[in-house]
Amino acid sequence: MSDIFSLISQSATGLFHLVVFPGGLFALLFGLVLKGIDRKVEARLQRRVGPPLLQPFYDLVKLASKETIIPETANKTLFMYAPLLGFTGMAVCLALLPVPGVYYGMENMGDMLVFFYLLPLPAIALMVAGSSSSSPFGALGFSREMTLMFAYEVPLLLVILAVAMQVGGEGSAEFSLRKIIEYQREHGSFGFTLSMLPAFVAYLLYLPGTMGVPPFDVAEAETEILEGPLLEYSGGLLAFFQLTSAMKLVIALGFGVVMFFPGTVAGGPLVNIVWFAAKCLLLMLVALTLCKAATARMRIEQALSFYLKYPATLALVSVVLAWVSL
Amino acid sequence: MSEALGKEFTLPLGPMHVALEEPMYFKVTVEGERVRHVEITSGHVHRGMEALATKRNLFQNIVLTERVCSLCSNSHPLTYCMAIENLAGIEVPRRAQYLRVLADEIKRVASHLFNVAILAHIIGYKSLFMHVMEVREIMQDVKETVYGNRMDLAANTLGGVKNDVDAQLFGYITRSLQRLEGHMQEIIDIYASNPMLCSRTVGVGVLPKDEAIRYGLVGPVARGSGLAVDVRRDAPYGIYPELSFNVITETGGDVHSRAMVRLREVNESISLIRQIAANLPEGKLTAPLPVIPAGQGCARTEAPRGELFYFIRTDESDIPTRLKWRVPSYMNWDALEVMMKDCAVADVSLIVNSIDPCVSCTER
């Protein structure tokens, strides 16, 4: 009898984490507000007035009310399911996102690797979208997205490895996010640890690439290939891409906070959620908004060589430092 | 990266495209990220203006030519009026000639700044775009304050200019120029040295000097390839012989050189406007107008984009039997096929913008 109760309560909490917190409702609202802040701050940096803070919400409402047009020459099934691929990937990923002091995801399993596998899903969804839309711009966007993904996944893998090896110690690696948070509680945040600093910088540089913002918005460059894969999308399907992007923003930032600044503050869960959100916001302003306002778009081959040269090298330095346990 | 799309395919750029300010259709044959062939189709904004000109009288055509295009909206009526003055032998008063140069140089500054701002927009440098456009706004304010309009100045009329610019307005212009000059130094530094900007523009869309001569290029595009052509110096008109200015050239022949030519020309224009403010003579604004005789006349000026040529044929009526103009973009856009040879898809719109194409002028 007690088994059944525990099973029900387990799946109920699982559902709660998927739909309400930290995934689903919380992440969507938080992600969209972050996007709104991002747009507003960027506009102010460029001396524009900028859209209202809630503009991402208005956009979604508008898109939802619009007709969805599927090009005649498109592969209809792929075209329809591509946005859902990224969306579900992010939804699952969010249910595992630890919020330090409040929620620890999958507890003792190697959930860090799950993040590494799920994070590229929106990019893959974009590639599927681009190739199924039968537009030449989509095809170009597809090839660019693929190249770019290859470029920024290398530093990400090295960053993850560096963090895991630092926690594991003595040549082994620890891929449980809970253990990583606990390790940092004892030994200090990695963001302030000298040997992990190169990895942190590498992660900062990884963020604009994975979020597709300047200077790495090559796959969707509107003045070159007219939003590329998204060109043929409209209505509800386009809204799904925007939702996915907002969720991915929360994951990418949250993952960074967990890896480098998982510190908690005294007080209840609510205080810690706000603290977590504040850290995400700060990370976004530094890595995305400022970067976006201060740079021009690179060509795809420039972006590729940039990622393989600088962030990858920086992350590699941290891996070596973690390995020799400095 | 071209493995994913090994075969050639066609990329339709335009006629409506975010990076193009006006409709123009490029059928770009692409292999991976490389452009193999470009086919240019134009004619989307043909309005039959040359035919319209033969339905209107000589005065109405001043208004018509001002509306050929917005960015060179002063060069067209100016050259048109000059063609008629050459035909009828009208001597334009000196004060009017000074004021004509004033209007033309103000427009040149705004036009050049607009083009380099769009360059920043195309490479995704939105902050720089906003900054340059904001600096350009100084010139827009000057236009609005002095002439009452932000784009069409309506400065020219047959035999002179329409409105006077008094000492108080010149004071305002000089103060504005001072503000502009401070910003210009900063902007030129940014364009000359910003590593991101340079990595996207240096060596892109190269047009060697011999090709520039072969295609008969004009304006900043020719000057960016080291070809020192400038109608203001080569075939002086108005009071340009009395003013001192440099013909700016760059030797790179790439997108970056063309942008630098435009930016440095802004400084030359600022100096020209200062000279006008200092030396403006008193006098009439218009010459008395004789009956325009039957005959043919032509005139050419240096528009912001290069040499602008007007031809007019009249009978003794007040309606021209033929009005024909050749615009700088017509000469320049054929050279696109040299510039775009084997360029990257990412650079197509950048190269198109670098010749500052004025589609509505060319197709009129």
What does this structure look like?
- The complex is a heterodimer of chains A (326) and B (364).
- Chain A is mainly alpha-helical and 326 residues long.
- Chain A has helices spanning 2-19, 24-45, 55-64, 76-95, 111-118, 121-132, 136-168, 177-187, 197-211, 222-225, 235-260, 269-294, 300-323.
- In chain A, helix 1 crosses helix 4 (76-95), helix 7 (136-168) runs parallel beside helix 13 (300-323) and helix 9 (197-211) runs antiparallel to helix 11 (235-260).
- Chain A is globular, with a radius of gyration of 20 Å.
- The termini of chain A are far apart.
- The model of chain A has no long low-confidence stretch (mean pLDDT 83).
- Chain B is built from 15 helices and eight strands.
- Chain B has 364 residues and is of the alpha+beta class.
- Residues 1-5 of chain B have low confidence and may be disordered.
- In chain B, a hairpin with a 2-residue loop joins strand 6 and strand 7.
- The chains are: A mainly alpha (326), B alpha+beta (364).
- Chain A binds chain B through residues 45-48, 136-137, 139-140, 142-144, 146-147, 214-215, 217-218, 221-226, 292-302, 304, and chain B through 1-2, 4-5, 9-12, 17-19, 30, 32-33, 120-128, 130-131, 134, 194, 196-197, 199-200, 344-349.
Helix coverage percent of chain A: over 70%
Give a short account of the largest sheet of chain A: none
CATH architecture of chain B: Orthogonal Bundle
* String of helices and strands of chain B: EEEHHHHHEEHHHHHHEEEHHHH
> What's the overall geometry of chain A?
globular
Decide which structural class fits the backbone of chain A. mainly alpha
Mean pLDDT, all residues of chain B = 87
Q: Give the spatial strand order of the biggest sheet of chain B.
A: 1-2-3
The number of E-state strands of chain B comes to 8
